[in-house]
Give the backbone structure.
Amino acid sequence: QVQLVESGGGLVQSGESLTLSCTASGSDFRTYVMHWYRQLPGNQQRTLLARVEPNGRTNYAAAAKGRFTISRDDAKKMVYLQMNALRPEDTALYFCNGYRDGAQFAPWGRGTQVTVSS
């Protein structure tokens, strides 16, 4: 069964760090461009934060650039998001997923909640 499970969220104070993990099951993981998204409180839309290609090249949205780092471990079928200098506005539900030639890797998981207190 192809699925994604996000973990690593929690309650932290402003300025602290967290590392989120995304565990994938299913074949061909290494051929997908993997992404991290977040869904802000009261908002149904998921916003793209970062992406990592199979060759390791990364891209970041403005909200993530300079503070967040995405990485992948294809042998473990995992994607990570290292988040530093967290701010209250980073409070959100964080999701991962992947895409290849327009096809989505798996159904959306439950996400992992990050709450940053001021």
